[in-house]
């Protein structure tokens, strides 16, 4: 059993007083009476609020109480130093300068010690109240937590738990992807070696071939290059490439019209980046872009080589490559056009999936932020040019496809191109909008989702044309093709093809036919083929200029026939055509004669409307989702037509032709409706909707399609609940159940809800930190709700919309999860600021939790209130600038847009979200407290381990015990510390990034904290607890900077793992890490930071306040700067430490001598 060393009662009972220093060397363990008296107690929470807020007055009270004790101990300690030096003690950890024999320094200068203060016998006048000692111990304990701190932490953690629970369980999109299958094989392009690129030993390119379909490795079609994303694999191209090979092999190669139009097989190339991490490192992103430009040059050269190509010799050689980019691969694709080695016009079509175009996912690396700015500025400047000749990107089309709510890796808001590309050259669309897809997708599923990959491949085959050197159709035609495949067809930019068509069908009807529907009458067919012969139903088209504005809508559960097809239903737009006999065969490709045996007939020249059909998910009593899964029966979509009156004003009739000859199931509803009755705008505000909700009723005589627009609902931070009443149809069976489409215009996001009774409404509209759009919005934008209801049901339908507050909390997670890299520093910096202010005034370095309690009562609420006012002022300034400044400048304002105006604070442009700053502050307080306690737990574990290691048998002599102590946590000599620091800094400047040195510094600091805690427990004095609290707080500060540095370190380690030993071209600035290393090495010697009583103490306060404000205002968008600012604070603390040291060349030479430390320790011994 370990024998406890005999010491003073003050040491054994936890007294905080200590004896004053004497000029004897043996008194190196003592501290000055001014420091010890000032630090004899911590602020007592049980005192009045005034005393709690004034540590100086509290300290003076304790000084008064302990004066007699100090006087008594002065008289006791006046005895020979040798006798006191022979007294056993728990520890003999002395400062380095005393061990080196520098005994003449002024102890009142503030050099801290870690020591057990020797004391004398127990005095009769010593305070013996156990409760008083327990209260002092509680106040000094770093685990203590006041009621205010506990309550704030509980509310903060409750808010965080509510956000996470809402994110994982409320307002969730349904997974609807069907599985895809393939037979992959890859052929490596071995010829693309170091002669072509300097990255040949790190990266490689493969050609994909589908097994049993196309196993020849010669190129023969149109080149397509797939770029994987962050840590992505080249094998991720398999689902899309397999679909491309199978679709051409099974369908297109047998279609002579498609072959004549320029369709050929797609040659998919894919890049193996060795799963490089591009999201965290800008240099890696640029390296990939440089490599890919060289890869494109090599790929295009393959088509010139007859040994590698099987293309038709009559076709022009390809000059460009189609790009498919996933995640960060989409950003690399855009970066390729900025690089110096980019070959002009070698890229003209880019399709990206889940790519964060608008802003970097994280801002931990300065180079990734600069790279993003360089890329985005280049694209914006190119598209701001007035003339096409000055725009290097004039022929480039960029389509950004976002996965939606299921993508929890990259916020889908970041996929927006509003701030980068005009709608003439690109757009952003969500997979929930894509026809026949209609489902959200996670970050990886967007690559293998079966129904989505089919749309991507068909759009590419429509866009290519091997008869042109660019291998693609002209830009305007490509844009029409992509809008047709990816948009719903109901957007304002959707183009109708009816006006560009020529009449192809001659429809002949008998005279005096009763098939003409009277005006204002709806056409409803509940079954096809009841006449046992084809029959045409004609709806007269109202004349243009009709009051209220007319719109034609048609909905059916059948597919609409193209010309020449023999289905059940065909829709034609016709004009009376007085045709002479014998001309029908030459003018029209189709002749539909429905006149029967009638002698008189009416001839109509008609255009087929099948090319403008809009697919809608089927909504019946049996359907629950807009899509069907693998194990479910296929559900055919509804066919919908929608034309404004000006689109069809050149025609007189709409002919709905029932071509069935036998009664078959099916239905169709067609009508002309007034826009006044079918379109409504509800101008209620978000606050009113939050308080009362929105209620409306669809009347019994409603049109088939009704639309409600709510301009105030545009934020992606809010979620809503839509409820619809039952659709009662009476005697007639309902044709279909209510179908709802929610949509916004920028970006193009639509969601469908079938068989609706209750629906969760959430959107990706105006989002935090997003740059403003290139084109200022002029009209009323916001959420729109489109309702398809059975108009034959003569009953009203009630609709209500409410704000889902619990569901809205989950929307904060994806938009604000990066605040935890910056905002907690606001709390930590204010806590350290309070600690240093109290320490400089009283000599007490409070514990982290005690300082946090004082901040929660004083500075933190004031700072959060000021930041809240600042956030509201930013939002009001932005709204005023948008309404006043943009109105009269026209197109010239495009160059004046500040794309960084939403980078500040919480990034919100809406004053409604003023509560975000205090909410984030509350959550961060809870997180900081939990991280602090976790750090305390780890430190205590290490401290206990250190105690076990240092325990020695009781029979060892006390002189041998110190010699036998394990050096696991023993402080090293100054010579060794200087040597270690020099070597580490040299490695930083040459080989390793400074982030690695920072991780080493954090590990050393936690060892220092563990050692300090052990000494503070064994030798209970204010000096030891002061040093422990100081070391612990510095470690907490460093810990919150560690996440900013870890991603770069991961990139470096990954490069070593793939044997890429080329040093980083960045992150070797020695000054970025030197202050941290010197500070940590200084703390390993046990030196307490000196008190600063002059005006320079305000510098410390200002620096901590500056980092607190910066972390809140700029921390999310420029997180990498936090390392440099904290580095500046570390440099200041090093300067404060050095302010009490007397450096000289002689002293330095003494330190560097090999045996100087040992000799000085021998000189310090007293026999």
From TrEMBL:
Keyword Transport: yes
Main location (coarse class): endoplasmic reticulum
Residue spans of biased composition, Basic and acidic residues class: 42-54, 68-80
Region (Disordered): 1-97, 111-136
Cellular compartment(s): Endoplasmic reticulum membrane
A GO biological process held by the record: endoplasmic reticulum to Golgi vesicle-mediated transport
GO molecular function annotations of the record: phosphatidylinositol deacylase activity
InterPro entries xrefs: AB_hydrolase_fold (IPR029058), PGAP1-ab_dom-like (IPR012908), PGAP1/BST1 (IPR039529), PGAP1_TMD (IPR056824)
E.C. number(s) listed in UniProt: 3.1.-.-
Coiled-coil ranges (or none): none
Membrane topology summary: Multi-pass membrane protein
Swiss-Prot/TrEMBL keywords: Endoplasmic reticulum, Hydrolase, Membrane, Protein transport, Transmembrane, Transmembrane helix, Transport
Transmembrane spans: 145-167, 814-833, 854-875, 912-931, 983-1006, 1027-1053, 1073-1090, 1102-1123, 1129-1152
Function: Involved in inositol deacylation of GPI-anchored proteins which plays important roles in the quality control and ER-associated degradation of GPI-anchored proteins.
Family label: Belongs to the GPI inositol-deacylase family.
Record's protein name: GPI inositol-deacylase
Organism listed in the record: Amylocarpus encephaloides
């Amino acid at each position: 059993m370990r024998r406890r060393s005999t010491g003073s009662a003050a040491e054994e009972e936890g007294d905080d007083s200590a004896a004053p220093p004497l000029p004897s060397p043996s008194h190196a363990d003592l501290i000055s009476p001014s420091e010890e008296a000032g630090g004899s107690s911590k602020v007592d929470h049980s005192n009045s609020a005034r005393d709690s807020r004034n540590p100086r007055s509290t300290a003076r009270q304790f000084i008064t109480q302990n004066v007699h004790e100090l006087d008594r101990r002065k008289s006791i300690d006046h005895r020979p130093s040798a006798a006191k030096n022979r007294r056993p003690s728990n520890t003999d950890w002395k400062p380095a300068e005393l061990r080196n024999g520098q005994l003449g320094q002024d102890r009142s200068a503030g050099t801290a010690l870690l020591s057990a203060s020797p004391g004398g016998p127990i005095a009769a006048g010593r305070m013996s109240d156990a409760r008083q000692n327990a209260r002092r111990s509680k106040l000094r304990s770093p685990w203590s937590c006041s009621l205010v701190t506990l309550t704030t932490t509980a509310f903060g953690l409750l808010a965080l738990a509510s956000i996470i629970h809402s994110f994982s369980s409320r307002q969730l999109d349904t997974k609807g992807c069907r599985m895809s299958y393939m037979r992959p094989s890859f052929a490596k392009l071995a010829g693309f070696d170091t002669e072509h690129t300097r990255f040949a030993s790190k990266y490689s390119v493969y050609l994909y071939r589908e097994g049993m379909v196309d196993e020849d490795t010669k190129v023969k079609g149109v080149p397509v290059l797939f770029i994987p994303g962050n840590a992505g694999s080249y094998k991720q191209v398999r689902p899309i490439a397999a679909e491309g090979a199978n679709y051409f092999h099974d369908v297109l190669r047998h279609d002579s019209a498609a072959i004549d139009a320029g369709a050929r097989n797609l040659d998919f190339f894919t890049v193996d980046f060795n799963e490089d991490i591009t999201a965290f490192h800008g240099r890696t992103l640029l390296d990939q872009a440089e490599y890919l430009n060289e890869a494109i040059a090599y790929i295009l050269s393959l088509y010139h080589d007859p040994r590698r190509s099987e293309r038709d010799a009559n076709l022009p050689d390809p000059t460009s490559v189609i790009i498919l980019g996933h995640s960060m691969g989409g950003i690399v694709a855009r970066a390729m056009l900025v690089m110096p080695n980019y070959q002009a016009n070698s890229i003209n079509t880019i399709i990206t999936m889940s790519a964060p175009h608008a802003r970097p996912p994280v801002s931990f690396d300065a180079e990734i932020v600069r790279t993003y700015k360089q890329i985005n500025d280049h694209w914006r400047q190119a598209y701001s040019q007035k003339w096409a000749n000055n725009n290097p990107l004039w022929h480039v089309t960029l389509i950004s496809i976002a996965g939606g709510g299921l993508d929890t890796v990259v916020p889908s808001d970041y996929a927006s191109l509003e701030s980068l590309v005009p709608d003439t050259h690109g757009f952003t669309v969500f997979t929930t909008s894509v026809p026949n897809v209609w489902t959200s997708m996670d970050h990886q599923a967007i690559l293998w989702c079966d129904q989505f990959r089919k749309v991507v491949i068909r759009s590419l085959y429509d866009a290519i044309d091997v008869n042109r050197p660019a291998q693609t159709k002209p830009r305007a035609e490509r844009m029409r093709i992509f809008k047709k495949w990816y948009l719903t067809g109901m957007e304002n930019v959707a183009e109708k093809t009816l006006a560009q068509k020529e009449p192809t069908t001659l429809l002949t009807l008998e005279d005096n036919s009763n098939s003409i529907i009277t005006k204002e009458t709806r056409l409803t067919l509940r079954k096809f083929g009841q006449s046992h012969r084809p029959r045409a139903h004609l709806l007269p088209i109202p004349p243009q200029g009709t009051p209220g504005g007319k719109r034609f809508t048609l909905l059916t559960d059948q597919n609409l026939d193209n010309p020449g097809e023999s289905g059940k239903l065909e829709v034609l737009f016709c004009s009376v055509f007085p045709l002479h006999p014998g001309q029908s065969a030459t003018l029209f490709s189709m002749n539909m004669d429905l006149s029967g045996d009638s002698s008189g007939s009416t001839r109509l020249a008609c255009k087929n409307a099948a090319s403008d059909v809009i697919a809608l998910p089927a909504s019946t009593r049996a359907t629950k989702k807009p899509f069907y899964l693998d194990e479910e029966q296929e559900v055919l979509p509804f066919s919908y037509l929608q034309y404004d009156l000006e689109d069809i004003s050149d025609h007189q009739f709409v002919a709905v032709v029932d071509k069935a000859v036998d009664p078959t199931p099916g239905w169709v509803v067609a009508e002309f409706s007034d826009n006044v009755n079918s379109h409504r705008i509800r101008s209620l505000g978000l606050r009113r909707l939050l308080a009362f909700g929105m209620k409306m009723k669809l009347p019994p005589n409603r049109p088939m399609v009704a639309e409600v627009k709510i301009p105030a609902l545009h934020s992606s931070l809010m979620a809503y609940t839509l409820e619809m009443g039952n659709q009662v149809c009476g005697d007639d069976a309902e044709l279909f159940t209510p179908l709802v489409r929610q949509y916004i215009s920028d970006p193009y996001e639509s969601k469908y809800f079938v068989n609706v009774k209750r629906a969760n409404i959430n959107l990706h509209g105006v989002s935090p930190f997003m740059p403003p759009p290139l084109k200022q919005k002029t009209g009323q934008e916001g959420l729109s709700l489109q309702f398809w209801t059975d108009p034959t049901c003569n009953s009203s339908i009630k609709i209500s919309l409410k704000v889902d507050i619990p569901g809205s909390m989950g929307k904060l997670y994806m938009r604000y999860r990066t605040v935890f890299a910056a905002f907690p520093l606001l709390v930590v910096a204010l806590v350290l600021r309070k600690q240093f202010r109290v320490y400089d005034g009283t000599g007490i370095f409070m514990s982290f939790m005690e300082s946090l309690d004082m901040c929660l009562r004083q500075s933190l609420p004031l700072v959060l209130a000021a930041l809240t006012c600042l956030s509201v002022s930013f939002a009001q300034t932005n709204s005023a600038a948008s309404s006043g400044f943009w109105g009269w400048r026209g197109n010239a304002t495009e160059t004046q847009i500040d794309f960084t105006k939403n980078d500040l604070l919480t990034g919100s442009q809406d004053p409604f979200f003023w509560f975000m700053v205090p909410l984030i502050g509350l959550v961060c307080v809870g997180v900081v407290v939990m991280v602090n306690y976790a750090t305390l737990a780890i430190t205590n574990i290490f401290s206990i381990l250190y105690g076990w290691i240092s325990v020695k048998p009781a029979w060892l002599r006390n002189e041998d015990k110190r010699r036998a102590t394990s050096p696991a946590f023993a402080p090293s000599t100054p010579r060794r510390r200087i040597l270690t620091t020099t070597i580490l800094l040299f490695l930083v400047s040459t080989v390793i990034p400074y982030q690695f040195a920072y991780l080493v510094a954090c590990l050393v600091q936690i060892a220092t904290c563990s050692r300090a805690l052990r000494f503070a427990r064994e030798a209970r004095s204010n000096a030891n607890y002061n040093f422990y609290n100081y070391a612990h707080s510095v470690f907490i500060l460093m810990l919150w900077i560690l996440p900013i540095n870890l991603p770069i370190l991961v990139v470096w380690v990954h490069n070593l793992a793939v044997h890429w030993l080329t040093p980083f071209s960045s992150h070797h600035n020695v000054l970025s890490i030197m202050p941290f290393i010197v500070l940590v090495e200084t703390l390993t010697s046990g030196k307490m930071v000196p008190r600063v009583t002059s005006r320079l103490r305000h510098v410390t306060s200002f620096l901590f306040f500056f980092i607190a404000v910066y972390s809140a205002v700029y921390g999310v968008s420029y997180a990498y700067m936090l390392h440099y600012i904290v580095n500046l604070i570390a440099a200041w603390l090093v300067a404060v430490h050095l302010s009490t040291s007397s450096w000289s060349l002689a002293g330095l030479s003494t330190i560097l001598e090999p045996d100087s430390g040992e000799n000085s320790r021998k000189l310090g011994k007293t026999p």
